[in-house]
Give the backbone structure.
Amino acid sequence: MGQGSRARILIGKAGLDGHDRGVKIVARALRDAGFEVIYTGLHNTPEAIVETALQEDVDAVGLSILSGAHNYIFPEVVRLLEEKGIGGVTVFGGGIIPKEDVDYLKTKGVKALFEPGVSTDEIINWVKENVTPKAL
Amino acid sequence: MSVDENEIERLRKARERWEKDYGSAPKREADFTTISGMEVPPLSTPLDLNGFDYESRLGFPGSYPYTRGIHNSMYRGRLWTMRQFAGFGTPEDTNRRFKYLMEHGQTGLSTAFDMPTLMGYDCDHERSRGEVGKEGVSVSSLADMEVLFDGIDLEKVTTSMTINCSASIIFAMYLVMAEKKGVSWRKLRGTLQNDMLKEFIAQREWISPPEPSVKITVDIIEFCAKEVPQWHPVSVSGYHIREAGSTAVQELAFTLADGIAYVEEGVKRGLDVDDFAPRLSFFFNVHNDFLEEIAKYRAARRMWAKIMRERFGARSPKSLMLKTHAQTAGASLTAQQPINNVARVTIQALAAVLGGTQSLHTNSMDETLALPTEESVTVALRTQQIIAEESGVVNTIDPFGGSYVMELLTDRIENEAFAYINKIDEMGGIFRAIETGYPQKEIADAAYKYQRELDTGLKTIVGVNKYNTEGEVTIPTLKIEERVETGQIEKLRELKRKRNNKVVRAKLSDIVTAARNGDNLMPSIVDAVREYATLGEICDIFREVYGVYRDPGYF
C-alpha cells in the first residue's frame, strides 16, 4: 500500500445471485487488513456498481458471481467503467467460474479471478500488490 | 441407562484411572472440536448419561418425542425418497433430465429454477440478462411448466419445487398444469419450499419486505389446507442458513424459530393448528461432521415435538412430527481435486440416513464448478443406492440411539438451540430479530470465524489447505449455451402475442384488488396463470403493492 493512504475497494454483488457468504468474508478480511471497503449488498446492476465506484472514488472493484452470469456481468462492468472515464480502476473477482471462462474474462480486462477454496490471505496479498491507492 | 449407586461409584473410579492415563498420554497436535466448534469429549461413558430417562428423552420410533424417528418401522417400512435437485437450461432440457433420473431409480422429483424465476423476473427482462437457464430451469409462464412436466405422471410422483418469493405463481402454474392433464388437486403430492423468512436470514432471494412476503407464504398454507390437502406448502429450511456459514446449532435454532413464526401466523389467520401443522415439512443441511450431524437431526425432531405440543397445544401426532428432507453440504465441496467430493458426499449422506431423514439429495462431485453433468449426478444417486442397499445401516432403526456420546451431543445441541430460540423470543420473535440483523450477523460471524480457522490451518479441508497437489485435476462440466436465453425470450414473445391479452389484463387487475384488500392471493393468481399471465407480470404487482426489499448489506 502507498505511504499512509489506504486503497478504497468496492466489493460488490451484481446480477440476481444471492450467494453472499464468500463476498462478505472477503469484505471483512480486506477491512481487517486495513483497506477501506465499501460493500454494495446484493442484486446490483452493472450500472449501479459502476455508479457507486464513481461516487466512492474507489481504486478497485471486486465482484462475486456464483450464478453463471459472469461472462455477461464482468465485461459489462469493465466497459461501463471505461465509458465513465474511470477505466483505471482495477477489476477482480471470484465465484464459480470455469477455467476457460477465467481465461476469457482476463482478455476482457478482469485482472484476477479467485476460485473457491482460496485463502483470504492470498486475496489480501494480491490486492496489496496490484491495487495502488490514488495519490492524495 | 439408569445405573445403581454402587455401579456408579465403581465406574467413576475406573473413569478416573482412565482419565489419569489419558492426561499423560501423548496426543496429536489437532483440533478436537466439531466443524461448528463444539467441544467433543475424548470419551463418553454411562456417567455422562446418569439420570437419563429413556422414555422421555428417546421413546420409540413413531412416538413422542420422535428422537428415534417419526415412523414406527423407519427404513424397514420404506426407504427415504431419493430426490435429486435438478434444473437447467430450457424446460425441455430439464424434462429430459427428470426422465433420466427416474429411469435410473430416483423416486421423487426436485426442481431447480434459474435466478430470474427465483427472483420474479421473466426471461426477457433486462435484469435477467446472462442468467436465463444458468442456475436452474427457466420458467416464465404456464407454457414452460407444461413442457417441464410433459409425460410425467403427477399422480405417481412427488414433486418438490425450490421456489420462494415467486412460489405462489409457480405453484399456481403447477396446479393449472395438473388440472389440464386431468389430475385432481386433491391427488397432488409434493413440496414447495416457500420459506420466506430464511430468505432474509440467509438465502437472499426476495421481492418485498418480510411481512408481505410471509403473508403470501401463509396464503399458500391456507389455500393448501383447503384445496390441495396432500401438498406440503412450506419446507422450513435450514439448508441455506448452514450454507451461508452458520454452525449446526444456529442452523437448527433459526430454522425452528422460522417454523414457530409460520405456525403463529397460521393460527393468527384463524386456522386450527392441527389443520395445517401436519403439512409443514423441514429441510436441513448435512455437513461433514458426522456425529454432530446425526445428533442435529435427532435433536430437531425432539425439539419440534416439544414446541408443537407445549407451545402450540397441538394434539394430532402428525403435527408433532418433524418430517425432513436432507441435502449434502454444497459449501463443503472443493473445486480442487473434485473427485474427493464423492467421499465427502458419502459421509454426509450416511449421516442423514443415520439421522433418520425422509428424503435426500446427494450433491454431485462437480457442483462447485458448475451444474452437474449426467455422469456426476448418476454417481451421486448411486451413492444413495449403495447406502440403502449395500451398507446395511437401514436394517435397524436409529443405530446410534443410546450411544453415550450421541446422546450427549443430541442433548447439548438441543439445549444450545433452545437458548437461541429463547433469545429470539426475548427480542420479540424472528421478524424483529431479522429486522435488527441478529441472525444474519450471527451467521456472518460464524462464517468468518471458520474461514480464519481454515486460513490458519486449525481446521482442515483436504486438497485445499492440506494435501494440495500441483497440477489440476479437471473433470468435464455442464455448459449452458446462450441459445437458451434467446430461445426462451422468443418463445415468451410469441406467447404474449398469441394469448388473449384483454383477459390477461383483467385477471392481473383481480390480483391487484386481492392484494390491496388483503385477501388470499392464490385464487386470483391461479386464474391469471391459466390465461398465461407471466411470472414477471404477477411479481410486478407484488413490487407495486408491497414494495421492494433492499439488502441492508451486513458483513
Notes: Strands of chain A lie at 8-13, 36-39, 60-65, 90-95, 112-114.
